[in-house]
Amino acid sequence: MALDMFSSLGQDSSYGEYRGRRQASRAAAQSQVIARQRSSDAHYDLADRFDRLNLVCQAMWELLHESAGVTDDHLRARIDEIDHRDGRRDGYHRPGADRCQCGAGVAAGSPRCQFCGAEAPDRSPFKGV
Hints:
Elements lengths: L1 H67 L3 H13 L13 E2 L5 E2 L23
Antiparallel strand pairs: 1-2
């Protein structure tokens, strides 16, 4: 009788462990589904922002072309120039830190140069893009 009681306790303990592992497995699977959904949402948000930016750039280009007579060759030359500003022709522009009149880099968001105290240089409107 006592032996039956201990074997029954062992089975209950194994079943409890099984249930715990199963619940943990379900929670992990649910977390993965949520993570995938968030990643997918971020992807679509980025794609939407890219599409809007592309539309705005196209509109600006057409206005500039029509009103100022800038040609595609002018645009290509400027793209090449900007691409090379960071020292590499690789299709990307990686601007450095904003520079103060003293030559020091000014941290983003800082209102003044941490070295000479001068007001931070005007930030490009493209910094936040």
